[in-house]
Amino acid sequence: MRPSGRAFNELRAVSFDVGVAKHAEGSCLVKFGDTHVLCTASWDETTPPWLRGAGRGWVTAEYGMLPRSTGDRMRREAKNGQSGRTQEIQRLIGRSLRAVVDLKALGERQILIDCDVIQADGGTRTASITGAWIAMNEAFKWAVSQGVIKSSPVIDRVAAISCGLIGGAPALDLDYDEDSTAQADANFVITGTGGLVEVQATAEGDPFTDEQFQALLALAKAGCADLSARQAELA
Fold first, then answer.
1. Which residues are in the Exoribonuclease phosphorolytic domain (predicted)?
2. I want to staple 135 with a disulfide (CB 3.0 to 4.6 A). Which of 2, 26, 60, 90 is the partner?
3. What is the pLDDT of residue 4?
């Protein structure tokens, strides 16, 4: 039995609350159990300087954890500089979203994604990616409604989930207690059509086998398919 009492192939309670940020072109408050992330998408009619004149757009992301999103208060990174972990996660979010956007169809514009972790209980990066897609899609819907673009450049959905080995058994959607004691943990980013965007997998003790990895991948595909279906309901 998992510490959470869930079945090994069971997601935490997942919810998406759209339109929670009044001023953002797109927003979503995503909850994976006790992990809560506010995702906003901002429309920008310019591109990064290095991309100007290239005839295509960009999607980029910033990620951060609020001081009391965890058990002990952490200092704001704005005062101390971003950690390597934060930089790695926000680059992952950006890559994941760009994989499902036709950047040429977007034109010389960009979408700025902000993922702010309000409460953390494991899987903040995967929740951020899943909620960020909804916020981004809402921003594109706004742009179409305003006549800024004729049609959305989104070509697929993308979601992400964590998996790990708990007591040697593959488990889906780890919370913090599970993640901190797992023999191996992995994050999978998968499109709505089943394409793999990114896989991050690490053994915390003994190396895991190919069979164990395939079992984690199968769980992740099923979990992301579920999340993608929920995203489609809001699209």
1. 10-138, 156-222
2. 26
3. 83
